């Protein structure tokens, strides 16, 4: 099973929206979602700040701010 990483912050409504939107895709394409809260992680906060959520597979960015279904479909293509 593959793993995607979702960077975000606690209380971020866009992060919550992306997490919820990913659930049916996780079942369909059999991947786990690792969530990382960037709060208190200076390197991630400096890199992303409020430019979240960001969805990755390894070092490959799939999308940010909202779930881009076309990008996710192309990634699993």
Would you write up a description of this structure?
It is a single chain. By secondary structure, this protein is α+β, with helices and mostly antiparallel strands. It is 42% helix and 30% strand. The chain has three helices and four strands; from the N terminus they run βαβαββα. The chain has helices at 13-29, 42-48, 69-76; strands at 2-8, 31-37, 54-57, 60-64. The chain has a four-stranded mixed β-sheet, covered by helices on one side. The longest helix has 17 residues, at 13-29.
Provide the low-confidence segments as ranges.
none
- Proportion in helices: 40-55%
Q: Give the topology string: H per helix, E per strand.
A: EHEHEEH
Number of DSSP E strands: 4
Sheet of most strands: 4 strands, mixed
Portion in beta strands:
25-35%
Q: Termini distance?
A: 16 Å
CATH class value: Alpha Beta
Strand order of the biggest β-sheet: 2-1-3-4
Query: CATH H level: which superfamily?
Result: Glutaredoxin
Give the helix/strand class: alpha+beta
Average pLDDT number: 96
Please state the CA-atom Rg, rounded to the nearest Å. Answer: 12 Å
How many domains? The number is 1
Sum up the overall morphology in one term: globular
Multimeric state: single chain
- Remind me, CATH topology? Glutaredoxin
Q: Which CATH-level-2 architecture?
A: 3-Layer(aba) Sandwich
Summarize the structure.
The protein has three helices and four strands.
